[in-house]
Amino acid sequence: MVRDCFPEQNLGYDDVLATGAGVRPLIREEGKNTRDTSREDAVWHSPPGLITVAGGKITTDRRMAQRVLELVDPELGPAPGLPNRTATVPLPGADVGPAGLEAFHAERSQDLVEAGVAPEAVERLCWLYGRQLDNLLGLAVGDPSWLEPLAPGVPALRGEVFLAVEREMALTLIDFMDRRAALLLFSLNFGLAGAEAAADIMAESLEWDANRKATELAAYRELASEHGLPSE
After folding, report:
1. Which of 49, 80, 106, 139 is least buried, going by the fewest C-beta atoms within 10 A?
2. Taken in order 130, 143, 151, 213, is the CA torsion positive or negative?
3. Domain ends where: 54, 71, 89?
4. Range of the domain at 144
């Protein structure tokens, strides 16, 4: 399609920097293809106490969770009388609120730049951490090197690795590179240039020996290879 839209550019696979694809858990409907199938979720309550949820998408997952919990509560016996707030409680660091978002973004962006963070990394950090940026900035008070990138061209900072281990229960290199920093999907070449530095920080925090570190690096490189470009 890109070649059709921009034929004069003569684009090929060598020009592609990264690829991605989404998988959605659709509920099969007889006689319909995936394009026509509903994107809605569904919850089934079956005896004796089996509750099943299927379908949906990431933008509605918290409302799905609330509906499930509303069915789970009666199965667990007398409730403590607390309201179900699953769909509305802010995620960690997200208690800024729409009205204060612009001011928060401007203030934190300035704090990060003044602390020495490269301007191109600021936007990502604000959206990824929200108010939890205070934890990252706090690290830099004692050691400014925590705000250095893992490697040139890799958006994640050294301090992010430390916080992922200490505060976010990251136990493997894949935990950090993919599930915390999202480098597998959103960084050029899967952030592989920063994998060694990230593994060094995790090795020190988690007391990995050389063999464990090598195993972690090999596992992430294998995962990255599975996300490579298809052959022409």
Report:
1. 80
2. negative
3. 89
4. 98-226
Q: How many CB atoms lie within 10 A of CB 154?
A: 23
Domain count, the chain: 2
Do 79 and 115 belong together in one domain? no
Q: Does 17 lie in the same domain as 37? A: yes
| Separation of alpha carbons 43 and 194, rounded Å | 42
231: in domain:
no
What string of pLDDT tens digits covers the 232 residues of the chain? 888 999 999 998 888 766 667 777 888 888 888 888 888 888 888 877 899 888 888 888 888 888 888 888 888 877 666 777 877 888 889 888 888 889 999 999 999 999 999 888 999 999 999 999 999 999 999 899 999 999 999 999 999 999 999 999 999 999 999 999 999 988 888 999 999 999 999 999 999 999 999 999 999 999 999 887 554 3
What are the structure tokens assigned to 27, written together? 């509920």
